[in-house]
Specification:
Blueprint lengths: L1 H18 L10 H8 L11 E5 L9 E7 L6 E2 L4 E6 L4 E5 L4 E6 L8 E2 L3 E6 L13 H4 L14 H4 L6 E4 L9 E7 L6 E2 L4 E6 L4 E5 L4 E6 L8 E2 L3 E6 L59 H10 L17 H8 L3 H4 L20 H5 L1 H7 L23 H16 L2 E9 L1 H10 L9 H15 L5 E3 L4 E3 L5 E3 L1 E3 L2 E3 L2 E2 L7 H17 L12 E5 L18 E5 L3 E6 L10 E14 L5 H16 L2 H22 L1
Parallel strand pairs: 20-24, 24-25
Antiparallel strand pairs: 1-8, 2-4, 2-7, 3-6, 4-5, 6-8, 9-16, 10-12, 10-15, 11-14, 12-13, 14-16, 17-27, 18-19, 20-23, 21-22, 25-27, 26-27
């Protein structure tokens, strides 16, 4: 009876014993477990691996579609590599890697649709030797089996209460790089009714302040975090919703049942750190995670492990900067130039994060906790800025957006090989055309609108400038999504004029005004400021004559524009008795380039095309007519 009941399981184990490939066995009952464990054979699970889940790439995203895989099974993956393209409910977004490893298995083919958020889509392993073990892997086989003798964790009395039917609202992921968020303010109070489209609260992400809009109706029974709560992890419950108003009093003392709710970060007076003399820094001590001879496995990338073994470095003593403390190649290279005591205190010297879709900041919490951790381990805390005695000052708290912007700029200047090409353009004809167009245009056309149009058309003439560095390849875009720098009270924002090359001057003027207003009010949607293929920053309205900008990765170029000023220039042809000089308005434009993508000759050609369009603005109208025909063709094909 036992053989008939579990014959297939036994056959699978025997086959694994022959080929030395042991697949995980699923145990369905206690009797089956007793029978199987009595067999004299070894049981092995799959090698150590990481499951990559379908990410939440928009606030309303519930399912996604894999448009295309850019990597194949067995290929090596590095931080910043694009694994695949995912189609959300709003747009197609690249799924970029945060860690290194090897792609062992793709669980869905290209074109797979309606994949729920959180469902595994791929398997990554640390070593190329482990890839073969996942050849016949399926998600059903990979599911972990709970231990038979596991003791359930004690549940608190509060968590065991039977609350009426309710919905727990978690902090949404409002951008691909968002890991935590701050609640700026609640627009609804406990007990109030909410309907679809109502703004529940304002959430500050790592890029901007975004409204959290309701997708359903109900009553707010409990608000779990107050105004100003900071560093709330994505997915953490922030509010409770019920269908019946009479149920609200029952949630007065509600607490989330799954895990403990984290308290919002509060500003506290800095505690006095113990004196460094109490414990020598050169002899750091660590508290073991658990006792016994078993030691926790140190996560390390294959390349880093190989270098550590070649150089004779004990990588267990190196502080890893990757996810979950993984030691990366850069950590080993950095450790080669450090003294042994510094290997333990790498957190005191945080390095800039690697670029990946936008710069995922896995080390922010470690950096913030560095002084407390250093004090607890008896190490000297990081040196604090020295304030001048007697000077008055005001400390301004860093918003998530400002902090991320600072990190992006630092990364760009330290890691991207910048170079700059400057050109001067006469803008008298452009100013005349603008004046004439505004007599008939419904939206007032600005000089900046005309610069956006000229830059987008120049990008079509020189497509290499409308490209992105993707680490292992260069992506060249067919249309120009122009990022336009806008100064706001919260810092610099760059909303996107999508497909600017296909829009007319009046259309660009209308879209630009709407985006600028939204940016200043902090109401930009993620799709309106995330992405872009080219950036323009115009400082002319501030009287700046020359602006050199920092490249916005992964874009390859950014154009800095200064004000137009009057200059005395020699005439090309002078007749007898005429004044040999003339007066013209001259504007300076500087193109900042990523030399990995755009060579000097290519940048020079782009500035040549840009100058031609600015000094002969009627060519923009000629190009725009062709663009309208192309746009009509796109719309016609879409309609069919």
């Amino acid at each position: 009876l036992m053989l008939r009941k579990f014959g297939k399981q036994i056959q699978r184990i025997a086959l694994g014993a022959k080929t030395h490939q042991f697949a995980p066995l699923r145990i369905h009952s206690q009797s089956q477990a007793k029978f199987i464990t009595a067999l004299p054979m070894r049981m092995f699970s799959y090698p150590s691996h990481t499951k990559l889940n379908m990410p939440s790439l928009s606030p309303t995203m519930e399912k996604g579609k894999i448009v295309q895989w850019y990597k194949k099974e067995g290929e090596e993956l590095l931080p910043g590599d694009v694994l695949c393209s995912v189609e959300t409910d709003k747009a197609s977004v690249d799924y970029e890697m945060q860690d290194e490893g090897f792609l062992a298995k793709m669980l869905f083919p290209e074109g797979a649709a309606d994949i729920p958020v959180g469902v595994p889509v791929a398997i990554v392993v640390d070593s190329a030797d482990d890839v073969a073990a996942f050849k016949d892997y399926s998600e059903a086989e990979g599911a972990e089996v709970p231990a038979a003798a596991a003791t359930p964790e004690p549940v608190s009395q509060e968590s065991a209460q039977n609350y009426p039917e309710h919905t727990v609202l978690g902090l949404p992921s409002l951008s691909p790089t968002m890991s935590t968020g701050n609640i700026v303010s609640w627009y609804k109070k406990e007990g109030e009714k909410v309907e679809p489209g109502d703004v529940l609260c304002s959430v500050e992400t790592d890029k901007a302040s975004v409204d959290f809009e309701m997708q359903d109706e109900g009553f707010i029974a409990k608000i779990l975090f107050g105004d100003g709560a900071k560093d709330i992890p994505v997915g953490e419950p922030i509010a409770v919703l019920v269908d019946d108003e009479e149920l609200i009093p029952q949630f007065k003392s509600f607490k989330p049942q799954t895990g403990e709710k984290k308290e919002p970060r509060k500003e506290e007076a800095p505690k006095e750190a113990p004196k460094a003399a109490e414990k020598p820094i050169s002899q750091p001590t660590t508290t073991p995670a658990f006792s016994g001879d078993i030691k926790p496995r140190k996560l390390i990338s294959p390349a880093a492990k190989k270098l550590a073994e070649e150089k004779g470095i004990d990588y267990n003593s190196v502080a890893g900067t990757g996810p979950a403390g993984r030691v990366l190649l850069g950590d080993i290279e950095e450790a080669l130039g450090k003294t042994p005591s510094k290997l333990y205190s790498a957190v005191n010297e945080p390095k800039a994060p690697r670029f990946d879709d936008g710069f995922r900041h896995q080390f922010q919490e470690e950096i913030k906790a560095a002084p407390v951790k250093a004090a607890a381990e008896g190490k000297a805390p990081p040196t604090a800025p020295i304030s001048v005695v007697g000077a008055d000052y005001t400390d301004i708290e860093m918003t998530n957006y400002k902090q991320v912007t600072a990190e992006r700029l630092t990364f760009s200047k330290q890691n991207i090989p910048h170079y700059y090409v400057t050109i001067e353009c006469e803008i008298d004809e452009l100013l005349k055309m603008r004046q004439n167009l505004n007599k008939a245009s419904e939206s007032k056309i600005t000089v900046n609108d005309m610069l956006i149009k000229a830059a987008s058309l120049a990008c079509l003439k020189v497509p290499d400038t409308n490209s992105s560095w993707m680490d292992t390849f260069i992506r060249k875009y067919h249309d120009v999504d122009m990022c336009v720098a806008v100064q706001t009270d919260n810092g610099l924002v760059a909303p996107i004029v999508s497909r600017a090359n296909l829009k007319g001057l009046e259309g660009i003027a209308k879209v630009t005004k709407e985006l600028q207003q939204k940016a200043k009010e902090g109401k930009l949607a993620p799709a309106e400021f995330m992405g872009g293929t080219f950036t323009i920053s115009n400082a002319g309205m501030y009287g700046i004559t020359n602006l050199i900008s920092v490249v916005n990765p992964p874009q390859a170029c950014i154009l800095g524009v200064g004000a137009g000023i009057k200059r005395v220039l020699p005439k090309d042809e002078v007749k007898e008795g005429e004044d040999p000089y003339r007066v013209a308005h001259v504007m300076t434009a500087t193109l900042s380039c990523d030399h990995r993508v755009v060579d000097g000759a290519v940048a020079a050609e782009w500035t040549k095309q840009f100058k031609k369009l600015i000094e002969n603005p009627e060519l923009m109208l000629l190009q725009n007519r062709k663009a309208q025909d192309l746009l009509f063709t796109h719309q016609k094909s879409d309609s069919f």
